[in-house]
Amino acid sequence: MWVHPQTAQESANPCASAFDLLRLSGTDTTSWPYRRRRTALESVFAARLLSAPWVLCPSTTDPDTVREWLTWASVGMEGVLFKRLDSVYEPAVRGWRKYKVRETAEAIVGAITDPVAAPSGLLLGRFNDDGRLQYTGRTTTLARAASSTVAGLLAPARRGHPWTGWSFSAGWGSRETLNVTLVEPELVVEVGVDVARDASGRWRHPARLHRARPDLSPANVPRGWRRQEEEPHTALTSRGRAACGAGGSRGRPHGRGAWSPRPWRLGGRSQRLRAGDFPSRTRAQS
To answer: Is the pTM of this model over 0.90?
Structure first.
């Protein structure tokens, strides 16, 4: 399961989402096929009447249910993970496949990496409700043609840039900082992003530049940046939310398997879940 320490401390109702069972009543279940492990996990929840804060991660083999889950991005659902039902648990082996929901968004270029004449990456921002330009993420490395196009649309920063004195992380969870050059926050770009956000509402993964939008002004960019004051329960999730057929191109499943939604995961650490980790009895609270 994944538990983000900050969220667990701040939330008044933390939860633990279970997706797999590796040991049951002293028996090592890692050699069991996932189908059998999932059945055993469901039996543990039923036999012990487990309720909040324990949550059984949803799972399905129905493609129509998966399509419905993929429409839940507005409530923080990143996508789905899937695995073959006949697969055994293999430590340190990535047996789960991922399909992430992506969307198109506009953002303002506030800084770049490398010189203005040949930027290799863009640092992006959006205005908050107070009209302040807040950092919301960065792009992947630009292709040479895209770099050349963007360079011709950038202007060096004037005095009073809103990001003066700021430092920027080289990546989510990294302590390394980027060496950036501030530019005048005038250029709007269209990017492709997944729906994962960090605790401050920034894009957790680098955005992919689609195109520059010199036809738009910064005022046209939605004020989509906000700090998440209280994360939903889905911020505390399992690492492998289900089982399913082996993935094909772009993570599309094929073969027999089960899906599970991939809720908005803020990070944290992975732990093996065993039956002994559950309380002996949990009653539903009215």
So the answer is: no
